[in-house]
User: Fold this.
Amino acid sequence: MEFGLSDTQRLFERALRNVLAGHVPLDALHRLPASGADLDAKLWAALTELGLPGVLVPETFGGAGLGTFEAGLAAEALGSFAAPAPFVGAAVMAPLAILRAGREAAQAAWLPRIAAGTARVAVALAGLDAAAGSTSVQRHGERLSGRLDQPIDLAGATHVLTALADGTIALVALDAPGVRVTLRASLDRTRPLGEVALAEAPAEILTAGDDGRRVAAAMLAAGRAMLAADTLGAAQTMLDRAVAHAQQREQFGRPIGSFQAVKHLCADMATMLEPARALVWHAAHAQDGRDDARLLACHAKAHLGEVGREVARMATEVHGGMGFTHELGLHYWFKRIGSNRQLLGGPEQCRREAAALQGWGTT
Assistant:
């Protein structure tokens, strides 16, 4: 059996990479504000025209009707360019939660807007183990109070979708009364973080209880698979740039790539990344309803967190002192890999969950 991309999937990936190449050159990353608060309107319009916000939205709601495997290809491409665009939360976790919550009225109301790019939904997992910071939210009927710390894709968002510890999945408009949004700079300038303060803010409850917990688990697993794919793309770019530099940079009258030590660094990076790609693709494919989706997402997230960090380190070393300069720009991918490593749970946490899922501990 041979597993590879279909012609349609290759066309989708190629079209996305062409758009990103035209809208996210290195100069564009240099122009990002320190807070990362501005969403590139031209980039978002181009991605929306391509159908990226609606990659998981069924065609009946105006989306592309593709699966999580294609979403993984998109995440890999976005990571390759360190694209400052919402995706993991806005285009994967949020629409997946709305679809799996099963409320037809909510699907009809929100999925067309997500696909059209007019509703950009950040995601916060309040009270779950994967949530970062000291997030705490209380529900009083159809109102929420508390704080959502470090929602994914908060910059430029119009709404936030949150999964509470009691299984409640709720959607809150960020311009509603009782809502205050604060953005702040993060390690990864291409994806700023922040917090959403809620004071009796009105919320639309999509589901609750055990059904909500199942939706939250599926949403978390899909998000982890996408972050692993993003890291794969970023690490591949760092490897490609390291190889290109090794072929061009000369010392003692010969390219540094001809020296055995540099060859070994590049070979080690390549041998780490190639099997990682198969793992990421398998994990992304599994999110479309397989029983082992959560387990594979944990493995992919944990492994790519480790591999990505090593590739980022070695690719920087190949560049020597230049690798640390702002002008070269390697730090955008380096920091993106570091950010992906911690979002939705670091490698240690993902491995603990994977062990528990296999009966070796407690969740």
Summary: The domain at 212-357 is CATH 1.20.140.10 (Butyryl-CoA Dehydrogenase, subunit A; domain 3). The longest strand covers residues 193-202.
